[in-house]
Structures are given as structure tokens and as C-alpha cells.
Amino acid sequence: MPIPPIYFVIGAIIIAIVVLMFIGTAFSLWWQSVLSKAPVDLIAIILMRFRKVNPSVIVTARITAKKAGIDVSTDKLEAHYMAGGRVPRVISALIAANKANIPLSFDRACAIDLAGRDVLAAVQTSVNPKVIDVPSGEMGRATIDGIAGDGIQLKVKARVTVRTALDRLVGGATEETIIARVGEGIVTTIGSAASHMMVLENPDRISKTVLARGLDAGTAFEILSIDIADIDVGENIGARLRTDKAEADKKVAQAEAEQQRARAVAEEQVQVAKVQENRAKVVLAEAEIPLAIAEAFRSGRLGIMDYYNMRNVQADTEMRNSIAQPPQPKQT
Predict the structure, then answer these.
(1) Phi, psi (rounded to 5 degrees) for 271
(2) Residue 158's Cα: distance from chain center in Å?
(3) Phi/psi at 162 (nearest 5 deg)?
(4) Domains delineated in the chain
(5) What is the average pLDDT value for the chain, to the nearest integer?
(6) 104 neighbors 72 (Cβ within 8 angstroms)
(7) What is the model's pLDDT at position 164?
(8) pLDDT for 14-64, tens place per residue?
(9) Most exposed among 37, 90, 92, 162, judged by the fewest C-beta atoms under 10 Å?
């Protein structure tokens, strides 16, 4: 069955409308660029859509740059867009740098943008220096603490004024490095002071010492000044450490004394055991005396009179010992 001619007509009308809409948008952008004296070729605008480039962004960026006295070709804008760059912010950064007489090329701005840095914010920081608090709120602490030579703790807050160095922005260290280096310099300066009073009397000593160390080397910033916002006296760490050491020494001495006492008690028990052993030997020896006397009687080496004389001597000795002992108090 042949297709009715009416369908061909409808299809042609639809295609014509789509083409007119497509060309109409491109024509509108081309006419806008011509009126703005920043012309962009109409064919180039049409081909941008096939390259998945938003022509409105490119044309607007070129017009903005041209009005500010900066001539950037469409090919460069399109290339940066296809590389994933943020074309409007790059153009805004170039305009801001040009107005502030800051040397910044389009290629340099694109490199900064593709590196993940906010090139417009960097230019603004170059014009208006930025103040960084040390320590920062992300560090989870309120002050930078250092201990002077006399053991007194000082709590310091500082404010660092920095300006972005555009030539070091790509590959340069970020704000976290500045904060860490300044904090380290503060702690070192306080630690090198013989007394905390020296720091309290001359707080600018910290600023001068830290600035002299060139902490902005290798970073994306140039340090303009370091100001001590606040400095407070903290704990006497030295005294606390000495107290802790004395307490530890005391516990060590007590442990050693306890060990010596335990050794003395053990030695005493050994001596008591030896005394008991010797007493047992004495008892055994005394038990052999009657046997020896009986043997002497049987063998005739000991007479009965000799035995009685020996007993008299023993009785006399016991009597003398009892007389020599002092009288015992009576129990009540």
C-alpha cells in the first residue's frame, strides 16, 4: 500500500521546523557576537553542538573577554571547555587580573583551573590579601601551645596575612601547610625562650622569628605578616613533670624498700629454721647422755660416787642460776 503524500509533507514540515530551531539558535548567538564586536563564525557555532560543546558558554565568554579588552580565540575557549575546564571563571579571573595589573596569561589561568584550583578566588586573594587563623577551626583546638625554658606553658593564637602567588599556585602547598609551619614556628620560638616572661614582654619576637624562617617557600602563598592575636599563660608543665617524677621515684624507692624487707623477712625465717635445727641437734645430743652414762657404768669407767658428785654439781649450778635471776613480777 503506497504511503499517502500527506505524510511526506508532514515529515518535511517537522524536519524544517527542527532545522530552523537549530539554525535559529546558532544564528541568534552569531548575531549577538557580531553586535558585540566579538564575532564568532556561524559554522563554528553550529559545529560546536556536534562536538558536545555548549555554544552559549563559548560565545558569552568571548564577548565578555572582548568587552574587557582581552582577545581570546574561540578555539582556545572550546579546547578548555572540552578539557573539563570552567570557562566563565577563567574569563572572570583574566578580567580581574587585567584590571589589577596582575600578569596572568590565558594558558596559565587554564592550567590553574584544570589543576582543581579556583583561579578566580586566587586572583581575588592576590588583590585582597587573605587572613588565616592559626590554629584553624578544623584543627579541633583553640590555641597553639608551647613550653618555655622555665616550664611554663603559653597558649598562642596568631593571624597570618597571605597573598596568592599565581606563579606558584600550580603544585604549591595549600593553606594547611602554612598553618602547620606557622604553628611549628610558634612552638619552636616559645621553646627557645629561657623564660615565659621574655615571650610575654615581646610577643613580636614570635612574629619576627617565624617570618625569618621563610615559611612560604614551596607554597601557593606569600606571607605578608604574622600577628599574635592572643597569648595566655597556661599550666606549669615543668613543675607538674617534676612532681610526677618525684612521685615515680617515691614509688620506686618504696618498691625497693619492700623488696629489702621481704629479703630480710626471708633471711630471718632461714635463721629461725637453723636455730630450730640446732636445737633439735642439742636435744638429740642430750638424749645420748643417759646412754653414755649407762655404758660407762657397765664398762666400769664411772663409779656410783662419781655419778652422785656430778649430780650435786648440776644441782648446785641450777640453784646458783635461779638465785642470779631477778624476781619475776606477780601476775594480778
Answers:
(1) -65, -40
(2) 18
(3) -125, 160
(4) 5-127 (no CATH), 130-240 (3.30.479.30)
(5) 82
(6) no
(7) 85
(8) 665 555 555 667 778 788 888 888 888 888 888 888 888 888 888 888 898
(9) 37
Question: Quick one: pLDDT at residue 2?
Answer: 56
Quote the crossing angle between the two packed helices 87-99 and 106-114, to the nearest 10°. 130
The tens digit of pLDDT for each residue in 250-264 reads: 999 999 999 998 888
Once rounded to an integer, what is the mean pLDDT over residues 298-323?
Answer: 75
pTM for the model stands at 0.59
pLDDT at 144 over 80: yes
Distance, in Å, from the CA atom of 226 to the CA atom of 211, rounded to the nearest integer, reads 7
